[in-house]
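Okay, can you check this protein?
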Amino acid sequence: MAASKNDKSKSGWISHGQVAENRRARFDYEIGETIEAGIVLTGTEVKSLRLGKAQIAESYASPERGELWLINSHIPEYLQANRFNHEEKRPRKLLVSKKQLAKLDQEVARAGNTIVPLKLFFNDQGKAKLLIGVGKGKKNYDKRATARDRDWNRDKARIMKEGGRG
């Protein structure tokens, strides 16, 4: 049996695989180094993630008080939870080593750098992980160049598929 796109079982739960992706991050930022960080979640947040409902498009990570925090990510409420549900946009602690945190803090101190979440996923052990990258904001002309290159690569692939006949 072939694995489906999100590795969902018949019940609709994601056991491992991608939950959310920030597709706009690589367009808006020039991503340098990436780090896989753990994320501290409550039980209802994990259940909501397993349903594949999360948004990290407008979020960012920030080193504060000697810890790394994920700000402005949206994990919707788990509807089957009663009164023990979670806050949808609360800051969530990210788990990285002290060495990685110091390096990230140093990178953010440089002008124009920010910590951007790229992908939220469950690893093979079933633990929620967040792929973060240090990004430097692109200027408008850089974004136009990125779009132009992407369009050219798409056209080139189409031409090659047709066998080079124009």
In short: The chain has a mean pLDDT of 81. The beta strands are 17-21, 29-39, 60-64, 67-71, 92-95, 113-122, 128-137. Residues 140-161 form the longest helix (22 residues).
